[in-house]
Design goal:
Layout: H1 10-18
Length: 35
């Protein structure tokens, strides 16, 4: 299952932070896989 989230949204910014990226870096697509 694939879900999309805007990186500018609050939850998108949290995903960026958890993946070690700056929450202001919205220049790309980020794939987050469940373990």
């Amino acid at each position: 299952r694939i879900r999309y989230e805007a990186l500018q949204s609050e939850s998108g910014r949290k995903l960026l932070q958890r993946s070690g990226r700056s929450p202001d870096d919205i220049s790309s697509v980020v794939l987050v896989e469940k373990d």
